[in-house]
């Protein structure tokens, strides 16, 4: 497997992504990986490598800026990093679209076959990518944030998969229902898989804070990644 960092820009902001792919002369589908609220750290990079292991190009994108990272357990600091993008969805959409352009320009990528996945805050990011009308085949939110901002939706062309812990306090059942209604009214091809007895951040082995509502679940992680693999195989096969 080949891994490399890649600088790209959103206006004057320098960003640093992380690409992973198997050495081959054949161009492959691209899967963008949007990080959690701590930034493009090891967890997101390992997810890009997981994607590469499935035969795609994984590109862990950067929402915050080159060298800007949060810290595990620093709720206030991580909230300060994520907050401007949660509050300004136009900014968020522009930032993730810059990553989409950068990812498509990777020589090993087949530019017509693109999907995006994201964890927690990154789930919010990929859902906003879909809401922006981006020309991607599908997006996958993994224990992501469903609530929309105040920017109107464009036509949703991506197929949408959400992998959600039913007991996630950041996305209570009423928000799940509102999201499902939003996607149905938009005419989107959507799925929500809810895992019972499962909280936020269930794919992160470091998550062990029941009071905050973030707890790792090996069963939910296994099921979620199987669903992710099936979804990616389906959307790339149909293109």
- Write the element-wise H/E pattern from the N-terminal end onward: EEEHEHHEHEEHEEEH
**Rg from Cα:** 16 Å
Total separate domains: 1
Helix/strand-derived class?
Answer: alpha/beta
Number of strands: 10
CATH superfamily, by name, is Alpha/Beta hydrolase fold, catalytic domain
Shape: globular
DSSP summary: helix tally: 6
Roughly what fraction of the amino acids lie in strands? Answer: 25-35%
Instruction: Walk across the major sheet and give the strand order.
Output: 1-2-4-3-5-6-7-8
Q: What is the distance, rounded to the nearest whole angstrom, between the alpha carbons of the first and last residues?
A: 25 Å
Enter the CATH topology name.
Answer: Rossmann fold
The helical percent reads 25-40%
Q: Report the top-level CATH class.
A: Alpha Beta
């Amino acid at each position: 497997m080949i891994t490399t960092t890649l600088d790209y820009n959103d206006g004057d902001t320098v960003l640093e992504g992380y690409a992973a792919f198997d050495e081959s002369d054949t161009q492959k589908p691209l899967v963008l990986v949007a990080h959690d609220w701590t930034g493009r750290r090891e967890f997101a990079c390992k997810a890009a490598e997981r994607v590469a292991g499935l035969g795609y190009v994984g590109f862990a994108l950067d929402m915050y800026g080159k060298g800007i990272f949060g810290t595990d357990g620093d709720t206030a600091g991580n909230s300060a990093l994520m907050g401007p993008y949660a509050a300004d969805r136009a900014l968020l959409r522009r930032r993730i679209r810059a990553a989409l352009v950068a990812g498509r320009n990777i020589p090993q990528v087949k530019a017509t076959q693109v999907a995006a996945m994201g964890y927690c805050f990154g789930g919010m990011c990929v859902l906003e990518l879909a809401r922006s009308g981006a020309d991607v085949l599908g997006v996958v939110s993994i224990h992501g944030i469903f609530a929309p901002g105040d920017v109107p939706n464009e036509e949703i062309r991506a197929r949408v998969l959400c992998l959600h812990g039913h007991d996630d306090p950041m996305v209570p059942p009423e928000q799940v229902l509102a999201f499902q209604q939003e996607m149905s009214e938009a005419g989107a091809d959507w799925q929500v898989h809810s895992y019972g007895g499962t909280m936020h951040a269930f794919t992160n082995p470091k998550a062990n804070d029941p009071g905050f509502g973030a707890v790792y679940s090996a069963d939910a992680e296994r099921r979620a990644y199987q669903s992710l693999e099936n979804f990616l195989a389906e959307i790339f096969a149909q293109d």
